[in-house]
Every structure is written in C-alpha cells, then in structure tokens.
Design a protein that fits this description.
Number of helices: 1
Order of helices and strands: HEEEEEE
Strand content: 25-35%
Number of strands: 6
Length: 196
C-alpha cells in the first residue's frame, strides 16, 4: 500500500520535503488563492517550520470502520461540519514523553460525506498547539492508492503537518480537531505558527 520507513532514503526524503516547503512558500507569496491577505504578501518571507525529523515519519496500522460514524466538527466560524470517521490509525513514537507508558497512539482519519475519492483527513492537536503551532490545531492529508483495509500500513509523516488557512485570514472557515485526536505529547514536526 505504501512504502515502509525502512525503504526510505533519508537524504532523498529530506530533499523532497524541502522542495515541497519551497513550493508552498511560493504559493503563499504569489498565488491569487493564497490565504495571506494581498496587502501582506510583499512582506511574507516564508512559513516557519520545525527542522525535518525522520523520527516523526512513522508507519501506522489502519483499522477501518465498515459502518463509519458521523462526527460533527466545530469550525473556527462557529459552524459544524459533518465528517465520517472512516479509520483509526495506530502508531508508535520512539521520541515520546518518558511519563507515557509505551509510546502507542491513535488518530482517527475522516472523510467528508461525499462520493468523491478525497484523501483521508487527519486533524490533530498536540502539546505544541497554541504555543509553537496554531491554536486551532494542524492537519494532515493521507492519499492512499486505494481505500484502506483493516491491517493496512500507511505512512504518517508529521513533517507534512500543516496549519489551516484560517490561521492567516478570517475569510476561511476551518474544522477544529475533535477531542479524540488530541495527542498528549508534543509533535515538534511540520509547520510552526506564532500568532501575532
């Protein structure tokens, strides 16, 4: 389904990650659909990131829900959005808080109620939220080459965790991670965000 961590060339992975970050910075600085308000784009010097860290690229095991539950996510504008909890992703982190027992964690993966094949949506909060990262949490999107099945392995790369657009402009309305996706550890990987 996906490549395993063992198969990853760390240097190539780092180059690919830095290339994606440069592309995103260019989009934010220049594209008409950038979430950076037009009057602020000239001063925009790029997003802030944690250093790439392959320890935060982990393989998760999927448990797929045959009859997905509806989850109502609150949004930054005070609305609710309907998602389906389609899978639970179980993973281990080796660089965890020593107070935690075994470094095992779970995140729910969601999809919108639509027939389209959109990526799995994994919003989350962790102990960096509201300090080094956006107070509304961060997102990951997982594109699989087919629908996940129970027991499938899929890579969760927290280095790709990103800040939702509503952090940059109130014209965007973003879902907030539900409590089941609040991790009791710090994940210093992916995008940082310092509020003004």
């Amino acid at each position: 389904m996906t490549e395993s961590d063992d198969a990853v060339d760390v240097d190539r992975w780092r180059e690919d990650l830095e290339s994606k970050r440069a592309e995103k910075d260019e989009f934010f600085a220049e594209h008409p659909q950038s979430p950076i308000p037009p009057e602020e784009r000239e001063a925009f010097s790029g997003l802030d990131y944690f250093n790439p860290d392959p320890d935060y690229r982990v393989t998760a095991t999927a448990a797929v829900h045959d009859d997905p539950e509806v989850v109502l996510m609150d949004t930054t504008a005070g609305r609710e959005m309907r998602y389906l909890r389609t899978a639970t992703l179980a993973f281990k982190l080796t660089r965890d808080d020593p107070d935690l027992e075994d470094g095992s964690f779970e995140l729910a993966a969601y999809r919108l109620e639509s027939p389209n094949d959109e990526p799995y949506f994994v919003p989350f909060r962790d102990k960096t939220t509201g300090q080094q990262t956006y107070q509304g949490g961060r997102y990951m999107e997982l594109a699989a080459d087919r629908d996940l099945e129970t027991g499938d392995a899929i890579v969760l790369d927290f280095n790709l965790a990103y800040t939702p657009f509503c952090a940059y402009s109130e014209t965007f309305d973003c879902p907030l991670p539900p409590e089941e996706n609040w991790l009791e550890i710090a994940i210093p990987a992916g995008e940082r965000f310092e509020s003004n």
